[in-house]
Amino acid sequence: MRFSYARPVLGVCLLLLVNFNFEQVETANILGIFPYQYTSPFLVVKPFVQSLVQRGHNVTLITPKSMPEVNGVRYLRVTNLNKRIQKLLESDELFDFIINKWRESILATKMYFHMCQDILSDDAVQRMLKDRNEHFDLIMMEATNLDALCGLVEYYNATLVGLSFLNFNWYTEERAGNHAPSIYQPISHIGYSRDYSLLSRIFNWIHITEEMLMESLIILPSQLQLFKKFFGYSEQKFYELRNKYSVILVNDHFSMGNVRANVPNIIEVGGLHLSEPPEPSDESLQRFMDEAEHGVIYFSMGLDILVQFLPDNMQQPMMQAFSQLKQRVVWKNELFNMPNKSENVYAIEKAPQRHILEHPNIRLFITNGGSLSVMEAVYSGVPMLGLPVFFDQFGNLRFAELAGMAEVLDINTLNADILTNTIRELIKNPKYTLRAKEMSNTFRDRPMSPLDAAVWWTEYALRNRNPAHMRLNKEEISLMRYYRLDWMLPFGLRFIIVFGSVLYLIWKVIQKKREWKKTKELKMLQPTSQ
Question: How high is the pLDDT of residue 188?
Answer without folding.
Answer: 63
